[in-house]
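Appendix B. Raw example, untouched.
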Amino acid sequence: MDNDFNAYQPNGEVAADRWVTVRHLFDSDYVETAADRWERARALFDARDYAKAAVVLAEVVGEVPFQADLHLLLARAYYHSAQLGKAEAVLREVVDRCPVDHYAHLLLGRTLERRGRADEAATWLRLAAAFGGELAEV
């Protein structure tokens, strides 16, 4: 574990993942599992520390590459931390694996919009609307 148990946020609050990791502070034999990192990443994401969440999630995705929900949360963390190129790459992988996931299409469309590619985004947003059961504007 490479956590700083004394880490604080800029507002003086304890770092979001401190409570997840402190449980094993005195357990010298403990090895952090992918599930532990997932829990820590969720805590960071929920605390809106998207950049740190993305770092942890990228590790977890590397270990558990078949979990689509991990990829989607990683893409969201990249999106919210303005790492749009990385978000786009992960989302394209998600829609390749699960072509009917309307949220992945929506987030890919929004990512492309933020990258200034509105024409390309429109296609993905129409697909998201169709898969989500909404009538798309044509």
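End of appendix B.
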